[in-house]
Each structure stands twice: as structure tokens, then as C-alpha cells.
Amino acid sequence: MERVRGAGAVLAVLVVLGAPPAAGEELSGVFQLMTNHECHFINGTERVRFVERHIYNRKQFLHFDSDVGVYVGDTPRGETLARHFNSKREWLEYKRSAVDRYCRYNYKADAPFTVERRVPPSVSISLVPSSSQPGPGRLLCSGMDFYPAPVQVRWFQDGQELPEHVVATDVVPTGDWSCQVLVLLEIPPRRGVTYSCQVEHVSLEHPLSRHWEMPPDTVHSKILVGVGGFVLGLVFLALRLGFYLREKVKGGPQMEGVAPPLLSHSLWAPLAPSAPFLSPPFLSPQSS
Ligand SMILES: *[C@@H]1O[C@H](CO)[C@@H](O)[C@H](O)[C@H]1NC(C)=O
């Protein structure tokens, strides 16, 4: 398998506009003559291949491949040119030396900012609304602005890897020497579970992890506060009734020594006109 690890290509592009059209004549087109120099680095500079391509209007008509060692014509006109160049021994030797003179030489200068370029990803987790599924949405892990492209993103749930229900985009090159990847967890996140997105990349000494937990639900907590308040109110009411009953038993002569039956007259006494409803009964035990 041949891998192009970097192409130190020099483009010599000659664009010739068609001759100015005569009156009433359409522009006949754009004529483009291009020479392309490619360096194929296979396993670093271990094996290098140099390819020179001559192209006219997007059609290659002549090329030199260092693996072949001579010019080869791709069209009848190219074959004529190949015979011409191949007859020039010194020129051919010069092209054959391009793998060292041009490719390996430039590799040293170019590799630090190409082959050796390392930019770590910025990783974040976001909750995205799901258009097709109801519920809280889905968790999306974004890896941004990293280089080179190979990357591994994994989802964990309470430390346990989730190999299924994970869908990832291709690694997208942004065109400015950086890449992006998005990895979606297809199951809805649950409360009380910690979700982690772990990214491994050649720029990172250790895998990078981000964690996410469902934030407290505001509606839910409001209900809790309401219920809590209601219960507290009930407790106070019970205490107040308890006090009232005890004082009633102590202070009411007609009830002395007798445990007041539940819902007895005394319990409802404050409602009677003799005891004003608004006065707290336990503050005026002798009132009735
Ligand atoms: C790549 O090159 C190194 C030497 O630079 C060599 O040891 C290694 O075997 C090569 N790997 C392959 C896959 O050819």
C-alpha cells in the first residue's frame, strides 16, 4: 500500500486565455498548461517516489515516474515529447536524481510543520435537542481543531464504555490544517449517571476526558420545595393542635383527668363564638 505522506509539489501553471473573440464570436475557452511535481514519501524518507506530470486542459499528456526512470507519453503528442526528452541523457539523469535532490532535501524543511504537525483537540460535551425522539435530548461530544486526522473518541457511562448507540461523523478536515469530529450518544442521558467522552490523539500524552451529568431540573425542584413547605405546614399545625389539646386538658376543669376524645368538643372549641377563632388557644388556656 502506498501512502502519500506529504507532497512537496511545485505547480507551474500557465493559463492562456483564448484569443480575443472577433466581433459576434463567443469566447472559445480557457487553455491551461500545467506541470505538477509530486513527492511521494512512503515510510518517511525510506522510500520516495518522484512524479512529474504535464497536463493540458486537465488531460495528462506526458509524465516522468522515478519508479520507471524515463518519460512516458500519454497522448500521441506526449509520445513525441517523451522521445525528445528521453534522448537527452543528462536531462534524464537530472530527473532521476529528483528523489534525493528535490524530495528528500525538501522533506527536512517541510516535515516539522506538516508530517510532524501536532495540534491537540478541544473537547466538549453538549446536550442537543433530538428532533425525532422525545425526552431530554442527546449528548454530543465535539472534538475540534486537531491535527492530524486520526482520532479515537469513546463514550463512557459511570466509567463503563458504551460501544453501542454511538454514532460518529467522519473526521472533517476544515481546510486550514485542522480537523473536527462529532460523536453522538444515541441513548437519552439519565439522571444520576456520569457520562464521559474520552479522546485519544497522537498530540496527547494521555487520553483527554470530559464529564457530564444531568443538571438539577428546576421544575422538579420547585415541586419538591412546594411539597416540603406543605409538609412543614402540616407539622406546625399538628404541633399547634397538640399544644392546644394539652393546655385544654390541664386548664379545662370539666375535662380534668379525662383524656380528650379525638375530635371532641374541646378540639373544635375555638370555632365556637365564645372563643374568638383568631386568638391562639394555647396562649390563653384559661379563656374557655
Ligand atoms: C520504515 O522504515 C524504518 C527505517 O526508517 C524501518 O525500520 C521499517 O521497517 C520501515 N517500515 C516499513 C513498514 O517498511
- Overall geometry: rod-shaped
Structural class: alpha+beta
Write out the CATH superfamily name of the domain at 2-17 and 28-113: Class II Histocompatibility Antigen, M Beta Chain, Chain B, domain 1
- Beta strand count: 14
Are there runs of 5+ residues with pLDDT below 50, and where?
1-14, 253-288
Task: List bound small molecules.
Answer: 2-acetamido-2-deoxy-beta-D-glucopyranose
Tell me the series of helices and strands, N- to C-terminal: EEEEEHHHEEEEEEEEEH
Major sheet: arrangement of strands: 1-2-3-4-5
Helix content: 10-25%
Give the amount of beta strand, in percent.
25-35%
**Rg computed from alpha carbons, rounded to a whole number of angstroms:** 42 Å
Continuous helix count: 4
CATH topology of the domain at 2-17 and 28-113: Class II Histocompatibility Antigen, M Beta Chain, Chain B, domain 1
Q: Which second-level CATH architecture of the domain at 2-17 and 28-113 applies?
A: Roll
Biggest sheet descriptor: 5 strands, antiparallel
- The span between the termini is 104 Å
For the record, the CATH class of the domain at 2-17 and 28-113 is Alpha Beta
Overall residue-averaged pLDDT value: 81
Question: How would you describe what is shown here?
Answer:
- With 288 residues, this protein is of the alpha+beta class.
- Strands 1-2-3-4-5 form a five-stranded antiparallel β-sheet. Strands 6, 7, 10, 11 and 12 form a five-stranded antiparallel β-sheet that branches. Strands 9-8-13-14 form a four-stranded antiparallel β-sheet, with no helix packed on it.
- Among the domains are: 2-17 and 28-113, Class II Histocompatibility Antigen, M Beta Chain, Chain B, domain 1 (Roll); 122-213, Immunoglobulin-like (Sandwich), CATH 2.60.40.10.
- It has four helices and 14 strands.
- Helices cover 23% and strands 31% of the residues.
- The structure holds 2-acetamido-2-deoxy-beta-D-glucopyranose.
- 2-acetamido-2-deoxy-beta-D-glucopyranose binds next to loops.
